[in-house]
Structure to design on (86 residues):
């Protein structure tokens, strides 16, 4: 059988075969939704965690970063507070 040659279990093969592949446009909808909720404070690493926890979307960091860069969805970085201690 093909699974034995590839060293993959039958369950893993059928899970891969039946998995839905989401396009960039589908994932972009969820990214924009999360960015609006977080007021643009999520970078790609935290966005990856939010997508997995809230929408059960598994996506690679580089792919997510490319989608966010292409659509100008970058995080707003806070300014560092200065201490006035002497």
């Amino acid at each position: 059988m093909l699974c034995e040659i590839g060293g993959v279990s039958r369950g893993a093969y059928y899970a891969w075969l039946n998995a839905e592949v989401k396009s960039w446009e589908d994932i972009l909808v969820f990214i924009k939704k999360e960015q609006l909720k977080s007021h643009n404070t999520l970078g790609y690493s935290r966005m990856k965690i939010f997508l997995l926890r809230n929408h059960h979307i598994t996506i690679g960091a580089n792919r997510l970063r490319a989608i966010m860069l292409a659509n100008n969805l970058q995080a707003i970085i806070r300014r560092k507070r200065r201490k006035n201690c002497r």
